[in-house]
Design a protein that fits this description.
By secondary structure, this protein is of the alpha+beta class. It has 3 domains: 152 residues, FAS1 domain; 179 residues, no CATH class; 193 residues, Sandwich (Jelly Rolls). 18% of the residues lie in helices and 31% in strands. It is built from 13 helices and 30 strands. It has a 7-stranded mixed sheet. Strand 18 and strand 19 form a beta hairpin. The longest helix has 15 residues. The N and C termini lie far apart (75 Å). The N terminus is likely disordered.
Length: 573
Amino acid sequence: MACSAIMAAATLTACSDWDDHFDTNSSVLDSQRSTLWQQIDKADNLKQFASLLKKAGYDEKLSASQTYTVWAPVDNSFDYDVLSQYGNERLLREFVENHIARNNYPASGALSKRIYMLNEKKMTFDGVSDYSIQGVKLAIPNMSSCSNGTLHAVEGKVPFLSSIYESLNNYDYELDSISAYIKSFDEKKIDEAKSKKGPVLHGEQTYLDTVYYEHNNLYDLYDAYINVEDSSYTMIVPTNKAWNKAYATVSSFFKYVPEFEFMESVEKQTIQKVKLEDAAAMTDSVSKMYLAAELFYNNNIYDNKKLKNQQDGASLNMDSLVSTVGAKSYSEDAKNLFAHTTRVDKSNGAIWVTADDSLNVRTWNMWNPELRFEAEYSRFFAYASNGSAEGVSVNRQNEEVDGKVSNNYYLEVTPASKAVNPEVNFYLPGVRSTEYSAYIVFVPANINSKYYAEPLKKNHVEVTFYYADEKGKTKDITFKDIDPAVDSLQNVEGMTAKVDTTYIGDVTFPTSYVGMSGSNQTYAPYVRIRSRVGSKQTAIYDRTMRIDCIILRPKNLDTYIKEHPEYKYDRGL
């Protein structure tokens, strides 16, 4: 039976190109001598599909020897005029490769298959007597069994559902800014396992047949593989206006100067100058990296799982969300994040597009977070003078002491003799160009035992911050007469000991130190804490300092906490 007669009748029992269906002396049908392209090109009801295939260059691919199955929408069953205006890249991805799969998939018997199309979309091909591909009915199953595969005619376009990555375009929303940033990291890499190796020339491997795959370094940086079809993510997607507004805020936290002074040795007080190749470019790069970092959520972990079914306007009922980089947003901030956004379902999750000009992210969640420097950590400890410093473990905290010591460790700074005041210095890496409310957490002497024999005493300290100013010159600010650790100067019986988070003062750092490091050196401002106890004050003040950590809390967060005492936020602990 000729293939043209089959099309006219619009019915056909499966004719195949599998050798075991015919003995060696059987005659071969005309369609089996023809390629898929030849059959499509001459079909009277596939003219529109053929036109789009040719525009995309698939007339050549479907004329080659590799085996394919094609589900071809019949004329006037799809938006041909719209698709004709697509650029080739979009036409290929969203239409042509959405209708073609490798290998033979005839419609025969009871079917229920999950098939990867050429664009890696997974489609359901099923049916018993009536067959469909992803819900679209086949008009003519097994329309042709050709020399290089099988052709089915379908009653309409197979639906294309883009992935989150593919949605970063300007088709439906103005998303140029976020799209341009993420796609600027796109690159093609050689798939060494699939490529055919050639000789090694000049120390480099060559390939006779090279297979490439698409990669984007941001996937690894953010741990968000938004291009993978079998994954499930939620992404908050800012429009151009929202991105630009957020960028103006974020970039204020990452101001760099072309050259700045740095204390190379706190002990020896030696200063060196550090030069940046391009301070403006560093501001731009770091700002964008942090801006996008809080936008991705893995739907398969923690309370994030509820995002799979979260809909527009519905109350966000969860304790917290955790971004792919580990930033936690508790209930209040999580609800705020999704306010005034529109959900759009994708093949591997959903995007939530900002519906107004704002990206509703708390600046202190990721861009400018509270910084905590554990005093006992060697990477923060710089130098102690007039005494020694040693880490002390809190194994069984005295229950009569209010508060907890973070990580159950603190640094004890002991004077070299009873007559001297010790001092200790700490590096403060990761500081942003912003205003902080500075705190130091002091630990009382009886932290490990309620049977501590000595009278409890306060510390009396002076705190100095050293950093670079707007011109890169070393600057300092000193806070005197700080009395932490206990509530009063009464006799020991009347005193309440506590782990005391002591407010030091507000400090503005003009420049950012994020990402500032050399081969063996981290460039950072530092803080000096000096005991300031006079010889006649030793009865009420203790020269030994017990320091849990230093806290730099963004000023706007500090103000918000004072106005909302029950506010819960990620402290990075």
